[in-house]
Amino acid sequence: MAPRSRRRGAGPPNIYDVAKLAKVSTATVSAVVNGQDKVEAGTRRRVQAAVKKLHYEPNLYASNLARGRTKLLGLIVSDVVNPFFSEIAQCIRQEAQTRNYEIALSSTQFSRADLVASVRRMIGLRVAGVAIMTTERSEQAVHLLRHYRLPAIFEDVGTVSHTISNVRIDYEGGIFRAVKYLVDLGHRRILFVRSYPTVSSEGTHFLSIRLRTQAFERAVLHFKPEGVQAFKVTCPGPGPKAGFQAMGEALSRYEFTAAIAIADPVALGALRYLQQRGYSVPRDISLVGFDNSYLCDYLTPSLTSVNIPRDKLGRMVVEQLVRQVEEQAPGAALPLETELIVRESATRPPSKRLNRIRTSGAVSGKRKAGDRSK
């Protein structure tokens, strides 16, 4: 049955209106709108002109019903404010759109309960697949994904199965390069600055935090014959606040000439503390971050940081997820290399110790047992 003609102002134009104006079938309109290349060039231009004239927007809901699968991918991140996660989200969104997929975004604020709730929302939205780029992991969330056979891909915390893939980031190589760079510059006393998202989560084993810490410990052990000593300090809370507090505590306990932060926001807080207390970076203390967020280029000094290539990560995530959705490809383990981006925040250690600054620096305290790396 032919559709009834609509009254003016009765609603947005539909596919029948475009087909009528372009003098083609609705199937042809659908092919053009969906980017299929089987339509003759002249016909394609006519349909595109009709679409533009009518300001037509495809009915995604109807299209999803027709194909029996949505063109919607779920994306769950830990924190949209953190540059690392927001940059990942942007890269995944751009890559998904090149494949005619849209993104439904959710964040967990590092909460396992919120991760489960986010997975449930994605299932309710009938997403075709979901990318889970979070620091935290939940067995309940994994169970839900497997129960509904929803294609999924994790960053670091996933266990590969028929429907689940996992991107494994090379923390080991990235941290090793950072330590080696400092050692080659002449540093022998190196601090590692860690943070946990919240006070209540300090005892929780976030895999990426553990992997970065273990990578630092192994790198230091490798260079121990060269006289390298290492220290660790940990403070909970948002990255910059934790880094600020941790650097104050570290300066009251240890003597070091370089510091590696577990993430760029932590390095930002550490840098702020040093500058407020009269230290010069890198003349007095060299500083290295991790993640290589866009902020690194705009700090003073610009921040040397271990780079996780977001564009490559975005392509990898979307390509694998689309393969799982459209080709029913099995889950896979996907390695992602890191690299050290050298900027202004690291140089050779000072020729003299910083006793003068430390004595007048208004920080004091006792060494905390258990923080020094063995």
Our estimate of the beta-strand percent is 15-25%
Number of domains: 3
The residue fraction in helices comes out at: 40-55%
Q: How many DSSP H or I helices?
A: 13
What are the secondary-structure elements, in order, as H or E? Answer: HHHHEHEHEHEEHEHEHEHEEHEEH
CATH superfamily of the largest domain: Response regulator
Distance between the termini: 79 Å
**In which order are the strands of the major sheet placed?**
2-1-3-4-5-11
Task: Describe the protein.
The protein is an alpha/beta fold and 374 residues long. The chain has 3 domains: 15-58, 434 Repressor (Amino-terminal Domain) (Orthogonal Bundle), CATH 1.10.260; 70-169 and 310-336, Response regulator (Rossmann fold, 3-Layer(aba) Sandwich); 171-307 and 340-360, Response regulator (Rossmann fold). The chain is built from 13 helices and 12 strands. A 6-stranded parallel beta sheet has the order 2-1-3-4-5-11, with helices on both faces. Helix 7 (139-147) links the parallel strand 3 and strand 4. Helix 1 (15-22) crosses helix 2, helix 1 (15-22) crosses helix 3 and helix 5 (83-98) packs across helix 12. It is elongated. Residues 1-5 and 355-374 have low confidence and may be disordered.
Descriptive terms for the model:
374 residues, alpha/beta, 434 Repressor (Amino-terminal Domain), Rossmann fold, six-stranded parallel β-sheet, six-stranded mixed β-sheet, 13 helices, 12 strands, disordered C terminus
